[in-house]
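Last lecture ended with a question: if I hand you only a sequence, what can you say about the shape of the protein? Today we answer it with a concrete record. The protein is Gfo/Idh/MocA family oxidoreductase. Below, first the input exactly as provided, then the predicted structure, then a couple of comments.
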Amino acid sequence: MDTSKLNRREFLQKGARVAAGSAALKTTALSYSRIAGANDRISLGHIGIGSRGRELDGIVALLKDTKNVEVSAVCDLWTHNLERAVAANQKYYGKAPQALKHPQELLALRDVDAVMISTPEHSHSPLLKLTAEAGKDAYCEKPMGNVLEEVKAARDAVLARNLIVQVGTQHRSEPYQIAARELIRSGALGDVSKYEIEWNYHGPRWRGRPEVKMIREQDADWRAWLMTKPLRPFDPQLYFEFRLYKEFSSGIADQWMSHGIDLCHFFMDVDYPYSVVANGGIFAWHDGRENPDTFQALFTYTNGFLVSYSTSFGNDSPSFTRIMGKKATMINTGGEGSPRWQIVEEKGNHEDDL
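The predicted structure:
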């Protein structure tokens, strides 16, 4: 894809940390076959307006004047989410967006320039493919998908039409992560041989969503929500707590580790490892979840360094990232998205202090 059309960093700087994961859009990123003049407003459609989707709508609203952008159409299968999104965007822009239940209706709108996708992750790839087939640029929440064949189909649809797509690994757009990358690439750490990530949380993460008790089957479209998955009885827990179930999510790996490893690739200028091993299990929260609440993985890269990733949902031991080179170590404290970096120079061995 031609990323020269898109300046994601510029877009995100306005929102700083609040803007994590926002859609990177710029007038030049959109189809000029429709835009008649430079003063025309960029029209966005938004599919999936749950808790994450509401954040994205708020971010776009912050940029409505500086980027001349608005959300003009919203889509959600659950009536409650749809009505709330209409009300929020009416407040942002002084007029109500078009309200549509099914994605196909939104994608058929000719006056929508680009689409934001923030649905449950099992539908990311299928919806991105449909969006590309409709000829629209897109921002898609991460992960891009968790079924390889569906991911490839979406990718192929995008490339065939030379569209712009951004997947929401937002931390590489944050100024402090960019500064960390520049320091690493300056050679300040020397040769890096080990890169460690440990992000923890104490609690039954992703369980206990209040919407589980609010939704009624007649107020949504369960079959449409399942997308490519086999039909099963309506399950409000699955609907909102999908990250806990293997067929619909990889849990820690694609929700948290994806961010950590994306930063590793960004910092170290690598694309993928040549070896990965992982293990995990349900050791802390026996609440019916299928995905691990405790997880660890090791990655080996051809550049000559080892990466470890670890998460526990049973203990909030301090989270950190540690990048270890022959000259110095960079340490980040505070877990995902933290701006707190420090550098410690190598000054001999600890045995020298004895």
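Comments.
1. The longest helix spans residues 252-268.
2. DSSP finds ten helices and 15 strands in the chain.
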